[in-house]
Amino acid sequence: MKINMKLIKTVFAVFACCTGSGALYAQNTVSLSECLKIALENNYSLQIVKNENEIAGNNYTRANAGFLPSVDASASYSGSVGNNSSSDFFDNNTKTKGQVANSGSAGVNASWDIFSGYKAQAKYAQLKELKEISDLNTRFEIENLIANVTAEYYYLVQQEQHKNNLEFILSISKERVRIVGINYELGSRSKMELLQAQVDFNSDSSALVRQKQQILTSEIRLKTLMGQLNRAQIVPDSSVYLLPELVFASLHEKTLDENTQLQIAAKQVNISEHEFKIIRSSSFPYVRLTSGYNYNFNFYNKGTTKKSNSTGLDYGLTVGVPIFDGGNRRREIKNAQIAKKNRELAQLEAQLDVEAKLQEIYSSYSNYLSLIKVERQNLKTAHENFAIAAERYRLGELFGIDMREAQNSLLDAEKRLLDVEYNAKIDEISLMMLAGNAMEYLSLR
Predict the structure, then answer these.
(1) Rounded Cα–Cα distance for residues 16 and 98 (Å)
(2) 88 SS3 class
(3) Range of 406's domain?
(4) Domain annotation covers residue 301
(5) Residues in Cβ contact with 151 at an 8 Å cutoff, skipping those fewer than 6 apart
């Protein structure tokens, strides 16, 4: 029986051309920007942060700071039954039994702290800082979500590429089993080589099953971030897309100006300053204006008075000066100064930490970019080695175990390139987030 050498050559040629291209042949791919758009609309954690930001916006009012007066309207009614009373006068004695009395009142009263040692101004400025911190927290949550979705999206891309490579490896192993089986029947190959080919095929089948599970797990994580766990299968783009090489000087400048965590730390220092002013304001004189319009009435069924009522406008002005409170204000002011100093130190620590992360991640990022060049060259060499091995195997000059080694070398080269590309992408995402540029991924594929 003649061996179909043309088929062997064709299979190996196709494998050599396709492995390493990382091509995904599935149609209807979902772009990164589409995934990000869906996540920003549906992610539950982001919705919670947005609601908290709305609360901070509602709190930022002049009334909440104490600029405006408070006005209350009230009404009351009361009565008594069966009251006995007696009165002794110089010219007469009176006694009343079973007296029924009813009384009521209604009024509108206002109170306004005209001056409270600039407390209202400091409180209003503090509310403004809290609102801006809430805005920054919302921005940070958006940036973090974008970074997580982007990282998971490209992890899925990487895993899909590796699955394709494993499928090609499996197709070669399957063909090896078929060919060695034919040769075994003809007596030109040993049973041991046939068994080894079957072992290799089973090993590749197992690897592909595990890889498909990796893809499913990644897809579930991505769908969870998008808030659409039950959506159809996500088919990502065909390759890990790297931005043009980032420049450290530019990143450093933007990090100091735009980093969200550094901006929040600066706002915390401002809040400490306003807290100090609020506490110190309790040592200043205060001026309080009060006013009210009230109506009162009383009804009696016995006695000299049948009914009475009164109406009128009341007003008052109170001026006070805190003199001594046991040293509490002095203690609070001292503690506020210490708290402010701590937040200034925390700001410096945050800047040091961010700059250290920037240097560390950029160094890693640069190394991965260099490794990409090395691994691409290594992959080219692995392709050439595999092509030679495939041809020698076709001619019967190479044993199956040597063919398997060339096959694994090519797969390993592919995997290493995928890994360094993905790791470079993760570092790129981290650098973009540190520099406050994570939202730029919204406009990328």
Answers:
(1) 114
(2) strand
(3) 5-18+26-74+101-443
(4) yes
(5) 425, 426, 429
Tokens of 393: 């195997």
Other C-beta atoms closer than 10 Å to the C-beta of 297 total 15
- Characterize 162-183 residue by residue with b for buried, 16 or more Cβ atoms within 10 angstroms of its Cβ, and e for exposed: bbbbbebbbebbbbbbbbbebb
Token pair recorded at residue 151: 């990282």
Buried b / exposed e along 131-153 (16+ C-beta atoms within 10 A): bbbbbbbbbbbbbbbbbbbbbbb
* Residue 366 CB partners (closer than 8 Å, separation 6+): none
The pLDDT of residue 11 is 43
Secondary structure tally for the chain: helices H, strands E: 10, 4
Does residue 412 belong to any structural domain of this protein? yes
pLDDT of residue 16 exceeding 70: no
pTM above 0.85, yes or no: no
Show the tokens assigned to 410: 């090519």
CATH code of residue 34: 1.20.1600.10
CB 289 within 8 A of CB 309: no
Instruction: State the DSSP code for 438.
Output: G
Distance CA(19)–CA(282), nearest Å, equals 75
- Quote the number of domains for the chain: 1
Query: Which of the four pLDDT bands, split at 50, 70 and 90, describes residue 126?
Result: very high
Is residue 43 a part of any domain in this protein? Answer: yes
Instruction: Tell me the mean pLDDT in the region 16-36.
Output: 61
Give the start-end residues of each E strand in 240-306.
286-300
**Which single residue is written with the structure tokens 């998971």?**
152
